[in-house]
Structures are given as structure tokens and as C-alpha cells.
């Protein structure tokens, strides 16, 4: 029996064939995944990862898909959407345990309701806890790695272990998990937060939301920031803003660039917008043009914050 047949036999109607990944990423581009399925619990997630490992099936776990650009050719293998959303918060100790499919903003608002703070400036970032920890999501000088106590992981599709914060080697928009790709899957994360006045927490959340509506093209088809800041920080003090990716891109004169169905946002030069009938190739070509413009003017090479997934041989 082929692994494709075994996959259908084991998971039956949970399996969807030839699923357009443009339906599962905010940019709205990408070809078909050979197979796609939703899971709603950690047990289901562990089971499907174990199965893929045993049968040597290529797989990709996704949350919101915000930072992902699937190729136009698509993905040969199984794409698993993680919908494990259990969240427990101990108000007296400030400890929170979140499954990897919990939305980051859900964690922040749930903490706020209990007078626990720390991640307020991240409010509105459209990602799950899994994506947030893997990429060490952050904003305005804060990052989620700072608050992680420990996390349970599945290693090589075989064993489940728990590691404390220092194992993750958090750095700007990255962690040890990001560099390990699919060999390690985040299952649950344990955080430590502190008591704060609710008025202050909600004030900071409101300021973060207001800033995003003003500075970012919220509501448009996009994957958020395309490039990391070259100084590995998102603070806007002490002249650092002048070395941010957005500032460098804008000063490179790229705001009028367009390729096919995508264009650089007029609101934020580090965002690419799908203005209609865009392809994944359009996104990658425009990102390359943006990078080249900064290299030519500032002699700085920007690194992508987004991740290209699938077969990109047609673009080489």
C-alpha cells in the first residue's frame, strides 16, 4: 500500500487532496498542496507527525501561514494546519500554558483580563503561539522569547521532550526551532508573566493596535514584513529607525514598484500587497527587486523574514 493510500485509510475524510494554499495564507498566493488536513488537538498533531515520520512523508505544519509563501507549483506532501487551542492561565502565579495553535492575540487578551502583562506591544500580530515562538515574534523592543519558561517539543517525529528557555537560543526574529525546520515541532509552551494594572495593560494594547492601523496596511492581502531589520532590533530610539528595513527600502525609492499582481505598499515600504491575481513568483521577484535596490543604494543585504515553501525550481 502506498503512503498516499495509507494516509487516506488512516485519516479518512480529514484528508483533502489538491488544496489551494492561497486559501490558507494571508497573501493569497500559492499552488496546491498534494494533501492537506486540519488537526484540533495536540494528540492529533503528534499522531500525524509520527505517521509522516514512519512513512517518510514530507510534511509542513502551519498556523496562520502569515510568514509563508507557498510556490505556484505547490507542495508535494502533507500540509497540516494546527488548530490545537487549549489555554490555561494561573492568575496568582502568572503562569500560562498554551497549545501551539492558540492565537497570540488570544493569549494577550486573556492575560489582560487577569491583570497579567508583558506582551502588550505584540497585540495584533497575526500568528499562533507556535509561529510566535519559532520566529521569536516581537515589536517595539519586546519579544515572546523573553517570557517563555519552557516548552514541550516533538523531536524527529519520535519522542516528546521539554526544554527550558535557554535551549531555544532566541535571537532577533529567530530561534533554534526555526533553524531545525520540520525535525522539531512545538506542542505546548509555558510562559511567566507579571501582575500589572489592567488600565496600563489595555492602554498599551490600544496604542499597539492604533500604531498598526496607522503604520501598516491592515486589511489588505499581505504577509507582513518581508525583510528583517538589519540591526536585529525593532526599537525606534537612538537613531535605530534610520537603519530599519522599512526606512532603507523607502529611501531606496521602491514604493512604486510592481510585479504582476503585487506591489510595494504605499503605507509601509517593507510590505508587499496582493492587488489582484498575484502569483507566488510575483512576490519573490518583487522581494528580490526590493533587496537589490537597498544593496545598490546602501550596500546592505536584507534578509527575508518570510519563508518560501515548496518547489521553487521554476524560479531559479
The CATH topology of the largest domain, please? Uridine Diphospho-n-acetylenolpyruvylglucosamine Reductase, domain 3
Considering DSSP H and I runs of 4 or more, what fraction of the residues is helical?
25-40%
Amino-to-carboxy terminus distance: 35 Å
Number of strands: 19
Q: What order do the helices and strands follow?
A: HEEHEEEEEHEHEEEEHEEHEHEEEHE
| Helix run count | 8
Beta-strand residue fraction: 25-35%
Let me know the largest β-sheet.
Answer: 5 strands, antiparallel
Per the principal axes of the C-alpha atoms, what is the gross shape? Answer: globular
Helix/strand/pairing category: alpha+beta
* Strand line-up of the largest beta sheet: 6-7-13-11-12
Low-confidence stretches: 236-240
The CATH class designation of the largest domain is Alpha Beta
Q: Could you say what the CATH architecture of the largest domain is?
A: 2-Layer Sandwich
Radius of gyration: 20 Å
Total tally of structural domains = 3
What structural keywords apply?
single chain; Uridine Diphospho-n-acetylenolpyruvylglucosamine Reductase, domain 3; 316 residues; five-stranded antiparallel β-sheet; UDP-N-acetylmuramate dehydrogenase activity; alpha+beta; UDP-N-acetylenolpyruvoylglucosamine reductase; globular; NADP; Uridine Diphospho-n-acetylenolpyruvylglucosamine Reductase, domain 1; Uridine Diphospho-n-acetylenolpyruvylglucosamine Reductase, domain 2
Amino acid at each position: 500500500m502506498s503512503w498516499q493510500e495509507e494516509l487516506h485509510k488512516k485519516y479518512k475524510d480529514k484528508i483533502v487532496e489538491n488544496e489551494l494554499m492561497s486559501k490558507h495564507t494571508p497573501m493569497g498566493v500559492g499552488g496546491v498542496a498534494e494533501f492537506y488536513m486540519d488537526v484540533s488537538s495536540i494528540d492529533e498533531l503528534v499522531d500525524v507527525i509520527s505517521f509522516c515520520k514512519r512513512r517518510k512523508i514530507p510534511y509542513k505544519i502551519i498556523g496562520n501561514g502569515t510568514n509563508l509563501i507557498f510556490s505556484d507549483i505547490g507542495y508535494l506532501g502533507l500540509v497540516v494546519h494546527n488548530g490545537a487551542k487549549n489555554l490555561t492561565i494561573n492568575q496568582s502565579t502568572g503562569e500560562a500554558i498554551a497549545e501551539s495553535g492558540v492565537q497570540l492575540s488570544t493569549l494577550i487578551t486573556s492575560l489582560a483580563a487577569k491583570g497579567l502583562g508583558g506582551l502588550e506591544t505584540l497585540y495584533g500580530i497575526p500568528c499562533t503561539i507556535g509561529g510566535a515562538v519559532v520566529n521569536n515574534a516581537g515589536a517595539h523592543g519586546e519579544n515572546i522569547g523573553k517570557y517563555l519558561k519552557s516548552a514541550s517539543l516533538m523531536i524527529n517525529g519520535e519522542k516528546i521532550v521539554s526544554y527550558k528557555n535557554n535551549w531555544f537560543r532566541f535571537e532577533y526574529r529567530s530561534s533554534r526551532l526555526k533553524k531545525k525546520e520540520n525535525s522539531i515541532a512545538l506542542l505546548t509552551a509555558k510562559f511567566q508573566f507579571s501582575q500589572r494594572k489592567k488600565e496600563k495593560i489595555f492602554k498599551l494594547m490600544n496604542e499597539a493596535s492604533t500604531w498598526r492601523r496607522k503604520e501598516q496596511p491592515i486589511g489588505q492581502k499581505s504577509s507582513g514584513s518581508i525583510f528583517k531589520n538589519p540591526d536585529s532590533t525593532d526599537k525606534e530610539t537612538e537613531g535605530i529607525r534610520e537603519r530599519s528595513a522599512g526606512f532603507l527600502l523607502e529611501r531606496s525609492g521602491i514604493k512604486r514598484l510592481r510585479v504582476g499582481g503585487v506591489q510595494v505598499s504605499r503605507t509601509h515600504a517593507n510590505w508587499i500587497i496582493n492587488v489582484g491575481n498575484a502569483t507566488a513568483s510575483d512576490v519573490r521577484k518583487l522581494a528580490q527587486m526590493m533587496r537589490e535596490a537597498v544593496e545598490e543604494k546602501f550596500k546592505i543585504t536584507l534578509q527575508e523574514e518570510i519563508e518560501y515553501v515548496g518547489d521553487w525550481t521554476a524560479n531559479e
